[in-house]
Amino acid sequence: ADELYDIFGKYGAVYQIRLGEKSRDTRGTAFVVYEDIYDAKRAVDHLSGFNVGGRYLVVMYYQPAKFERRADAEEKKKELEELRRQVKLKKAQMAAKDENQS
User: Fold this and answer.
1) Is the pLDDT score of 11 beyond 80?
2) Would you tell me which of 39, 56, 91, 93 could form a disulfide with 34, CB atoms 3.0–4.6 Å apart?
3) Are 19 and 30 within 8 A, CB to CB?
4) Cβ contacts of residue 18 below 8 Å, gap of 6+?
């Protein structure tokens, strides 16, 4: 994390850096919060594509609405999968019932 403060601190006062957790979605990510929006813009403009330890940085602005839409879409996908599972189960039960009546 100290290396990140050194890299991102060159573009302005860094308020906070949060490293992504070990989960699949956030592994290898960091959220850098600047005290000034203009410093954040300069960091985005200058650091995207910067090579650090053999890895290239992808620097972008955090867009909460975009992440909320993604979470909503994932939730709807799970609901749809559950409904499909229930329908499949119901069809299997009806087929078994029809076989027993024959």
Assistant:
1) yes
2) 39
3) yes
4) 30, 31, 33
